Amino acid sequence: MSRSGTAAGSAGAVARRSFRRWARNEVNLPVHLEIVTADGKAFTTGTAILRDVSLRGGRLGRLVLRRQVLPARSFAIRIRFRSEPYRGVGALCRPVRFGRGPEFELAVEFEDFWASAEPKPKP
User: Fold this and answer.
1) Residue-wise pLDDT tens digits, 83-108
2) Of 32, 83, 95, 117, which has the fewest beta carbons less than 10 angstroms from its beta carbon?
3) DSSP H or E segment with residue 110
4) H/E stretch holding 9
5) Model confidence band, residue 123 (pLDDT cutoffs 50, 70, 90)
6) Minimal CA–CA distance to 36: which of 100, 103, 111?
7) What one-character-per-residue DSSP string does 46-100 give?
């Protein structure tokens, strides 16, 4: 068979789709997020669940945004982890893929990380 739509050609396409440079780990971590436009202005805020994570990125699901739209121009996403032991850790992300499965999801690539010490509540 030839390369144009053959069984051998389609097997190669499946192999390329399955190949990942960094392994994904399934997680279920709540995050606070902020959508920021390219000029640095806050567009909206909200929450999400980080569904999986790799060395370079992650997949956000169950997005709940104050403004239920995304900018029609370039934007970035700042996430802050909301639960222990990651509380105080944040990341600057750029969106790389929208949608997947029965709910809207957003795949992101990590561009930067930070951590801040949050005081522990007194007993």
Assistant:
1) 988 999 999 999 999 876 688 899 99
2) 117
3) strand 103-115
4) helix 7-18
5) low
6) 111
7) EEEEEEEE-SSEEEEEEEEESSSS--SS-EEEEEEE-STTSTTEEEEEEEEEEEE
**Candidate from 11-15, 21-25, 26-30, 100-104 with smallest mean pLDDT:** 11-15
Residue-number span of the structural domain to which 96 is assigned: 23-115
Take residue 49 and report the two structure tokens written for it.
């669940």
Mean per-residue pLDDT of the chain? 84
Q: Which residue has the tokens 């999801």?
A: 105
Nearest partner of 29 among 84, 68, 77, 76, judged by Cα: 84
Here the CATH number for the domain that contains residue 69 is 2.40.10.220
pLDDT tens digits for range 43-66 = 999 999 999 999 999 999 999 999
Structural domain count of the chain: 1
